[in-house]
Write a structure and sequence with these properties.
Chain A: GO terms for molecular function: proton-transporting ATP synthase activity, rotational mechanism; proton-transporting ATPase activity, rotational mechanism. Chain A: Keywords: ATP synthesis, Cell membrane, CF(0), Hydrogen ion transport, Ion transport, Membrane, Transmembrane, Transmembrane helix, Transport. Chain A: This is ATP synthase subunit b. Chain A: InterPro entries: ATP_synth_b/b'su_bac/chlpt (IPR002146), ATP_synthase_B_chain (IPR050059). The complex is a heterodimer of chains A (about 160) and B (about 260). Chain A is mainly alpha-helical. Helices cover about 95% and strands about 0% of the residues of chain A. Chain B has one domain (about 1-260). Chain B has helices at about 1-5, 35-55, 65-85, 90-110, 125-150, 165-210, 215-260, and strands at about 25, 30. In chain B, strands 1-2 form a two-stranded antiparallel ribbon. The relative contact order of chain B is 0.14. Classes of the chains: A mainly alpha (about 160), B mainly alpha (about 260).
């Protein structure tokens, strides 16, 4: 077993070179390079968590904006609805008043026409009376050969007309 | 050579040989020859440096290589955080170096570079190496424990709810189990690596000598043994990872004792 046979001859060189080389490994690699590697990992982890936090914040912001937009949208919609209702009501009342004035005009014309008709009827009735009394005078004159006064003919016609 | 002798020395792979004519290098009377073991330590360190360097592009969206390096640092980081808590993060450089150095050493020792005439050497199969690493971890535990808790660190050896009568006995039992830690840490890795390489070498000697004995033994011995070797190679890759993981995990558990006592 060379480990034991050569122990006396080689232990010092083994220990010396191990300490030198492991010392180099420890100080150059362990102390010099490993912290940088771990630093890189830590930086990356930090960046990832920062990015995640930023994304989370952006999402919250977007949610907030959407909520605001929704609120504004609802307000606008309500406003629009109010405007529409208002316009409808205005239009309805305008239509109503127009209809009312038209009705009034029509009524007035109707009344006027009725009055005219009544007047014409009265006139016609009067004319019929005078024509009838003249005709009665004529008939009496021809049949009886006597002249009847206008007043008595008219009174007789009137009487006959009333008695029908 | 091996084929001519029809005999393979399975232990030869663990032999330490000075290279580049450095067998007489010395510091204060101690030999510090640059050996094949030191060479493979250097190779493991360079391979690890290249691996981590490839992951240093510091891109926000990592490539595959960067992802691999980051998953290793994240793995160690998670392990320390799970075992020690927030205070465990400051040990990431040490435990990462330990884990990756042992892992690269184990895997480099398994590379089939023997096909190209290079002799692979697994320095984690030497208890001089695993012992030093274990002692490093152990001394970190001691230093952290005493620096943080002072003499209260000794309360680690008396579990909660121990009856007063039992305290002296329990203290020594716990102290013994504590003092054994570096040995168990070192021996576990050393034995696992040595046993695996030994097994592969013994099986390969079956293949070689069986092949030299003619067609009959070839069919009966060589083919099953070779299939077994393929399976054991896969197992050894698993062991290479598991042993590195166990070493790092136990180190972090021991550091947890020092950081948080009970």
């Amino acid at each position: 077993m060379p480990q034991i046979e050569q122990l006396a001859a080689t232990y010092s060189s083994q220990i010396f070179w191990l300490l030198v080389i492991f010392g180099l490994v420890f100080f150059v690699i362990g102390r010099g390079m490993v912290p940088k590697v771990m630093d890189t990992v830590a930086q990356r982890d930090k960046q990832i968590s920062d990015d995640l936090a930023a994304a989370e914040a952006a999402r919250a912001d977007a949610d907030k904006r959407e909520e605001e937009w929704r609120q504004r949208e609802n307000e606008n919609r309500a406003q629009a609805q109010a405007v529409i209702a208002d316009a409808k009501a205005q239009a309805a009342s305008k239509t109503e008043s127009k209809l009312a004035s038209a009705q009034e005009r029509v009524d007035a014309r109707l009344a006027e026409a009725e009055a005219r008709i009544n007047a014409a009827r009265d006139e016609a009735a009067n004319e019929i009376q005078s024509v009838a009394s003249e005709a009665a005078q004529d008939i009496v004159a021809r049949l009886a050969g006597m002249n009847v006064a206008k007043q008595s003919a008219t009174a007789a016609v009137k009487k006959a007309l009333i008695n029908g | 050579m091996a084929a001519e002798q029809a005999k393979v020395d399975p232990m030869h792979q663990f032999t330490i040989e000075p290279i580049l004519g450095s067998q007489n290098w010395e510091i204060a009377g101690y030999n510090i020859a640059f050996t094949n073991s030191a060479l493979w330590m250097g190779l493991a360190a360079i391979a690890l440096w290249l691996f981590v360097f490839g992951g240093m592009k510091r891109q926000l969206v990592p490539g595959r290589w960067q992802m691999a390096v980051e998953s290793f640092t994240g793995f160690i980081d998670d392990m320390l955080e799970a075992n020690i808590g927030k205070a465990g993060r400051k040990y990431v450089p040490y435990v990462f170096s330990l884990f990756m150095f042992i892992l690269f050493a184990n895997i480099l020792g398994l590379l089939p570079v023997g096909l190209f005439g290079v002799h692979p050497f697994t320095f984690t199969s030497h208890f001089t190496v695993t012992g030093v690493l274990a002692l490093l971890s152990f001394s970190i535990v001691l230093v952290v424990g005493f620096a943080k808790h002072g003499f209260r660190f000794f309360s680690l050896f008396i579990p909660h709810g121990t009856p007063v009568v039992m305290m002296p006995l329990i203290f020594f039992v716990e102290l013994a189990s504590f003092m054994v830690r570096p040995f168990s840490l070192a021996l576990r890795l050393f034995v696992a690596m040595m046993a695996g390489h030994l097994l592969l070498e013994v099986l390969s000697s079956f293949v070689i000598s069986g092949f030299n004995n003619g067609i009959g033994t070839s069919v009966i011995v060589v083919i099953p043994t070779f299939l077994l070797m393929i399976g054991i190679c896969a197992l050894e890759l698993l062991v290479a990872g598991i042993q590195a993981y166990v070493f790092a995990l136990l180190t972090s558990l021991y550091i947890n004792d020092a950081e948080n006592l009970h």
